[in-house]
Design goal:
The protein is α/β, with parallel strands linked by helices. The chain folds into two domains: 108 residues, Urease, subunit C, domain 1 (Roll), CATH 2.30.40.10; 294 residues, TIM Barrel (Alpha-Beta Barrel). It is built from 14 helices and 17 strands. The strands form two sheets. Strands 6, 7, 8, 9, 10, 11, 12, 13 and 14 form a nine-stranded parallel sheet that branches. Helix 2 packs parallel to helix 3, helix 12 crosses helix 13 and helix 13 packs across helix 14. It comes from Enhygromyxa salina. Its EC number is 3.5.4.3. This is Guanine deaminase.
Amino acid sequence: MTATLQTIRGCVLAPDPDHQRVSLLPDALLRIDDAGVIVSVEAASADCDVPNTWPGAVIVPGFVDVHLHFPQTRVIGSASGPLLPWLERSVFPEEQRFADDDYAATVADEFCDALIAQGTTCAAIYSSSHPGATERLFAALARRGLRAATGLTLMDRHGPAALVRSHTDALAASEGLLERWHGYDRGRLQLSMIPRFAISCTPELMQAAGTFAASHDLLIQSHISENLDEIAKTLELFPGQRDYLGVYEAHGCATASTILAHCIHLSDHEWSRFVSRDLAIAHCPDSNFFLGSGAMPLAAALDRGLRVGLGTDVGAGRTFSVRRVAAAAHDAALLHGAPVAPQALLWLATRGGARALGRPQLGCVAPGFEADLAVIDLPALGSSDMDTIIDALLFRHDAGPVRATLVRGRVL
């Protein structure tokens, strides 16, 4: 980390804490305390002697990626089929390489570089099923200054022998990770319980994950209803359940601390239970397009008041850029005939993701929030109004690189 800033001046896009809207502060002065918390945000006075910190750039909260896979970093763009064949052909062979701790450490550095380069400050990350690789990932995240919730990807069936791990072994490894990393650096890093998806988990593993998460107040991450073949296989393996969500409910993995990715093919009854259980959603439109899985009805989820964040879903997702995922979310919403406003998409990429992950102190540029920020160069624009700026940030894929990424006021 190269610098810690306590005063920042510039053009700011500030998400509302509670509503899907954003305010433009054309020339704002931010002051940050020693703990990295914003203490004031005010308009710069006409005689302000603080120079613009990043001329030609706009400051937004750091992006929050609510769903991606660390051990798939090097297989981005592997077009080997829909979900289940893609796992067999591309993902499982690569994930087996993470038994090698040195390989895992190398990829962990690449992974952190990619997050920082795209302005992502906080992420919910699937590690591999290997404790050593997960340890290396935590160490890299700690060293590089990023925020994250991560843990072992739990699977004890329907995978290569080198990847499956019994629930007793997985829980023992998670105990060690909990002791060493959960709550690290004032909560910057957190352990998460991650049953990969129902197909790869026995009822015993699923129940153990739910119980462990409840005992330690941990985030639960998993997948649901991404692919029709996946749904059919899940119901075959859990014949006593009426639907996919029922599997997670029956094993203690459907709580207000659960975030489920994809949610493309949910029934109306499942949607209603998402609401009653306050489940969060990881919307991953780029990977859904790439694997031909379908398009989640984003507007319908938002209209129900559900907590939704955006996930790159690397490596089925083809980018580490949450901004590009916001553009894909725009396109997916159009397919449903229910557009979502660009302001709302930027809100989901920042504040929405923070709320989905239970990180209330993140996602806003306002007093009392931690100074996690992304600074993005603006192209030459015909107007300086807010909508023009947001459109440029989200929809001009070739314009506006990230100039700086900050966590608690520190430039990473």
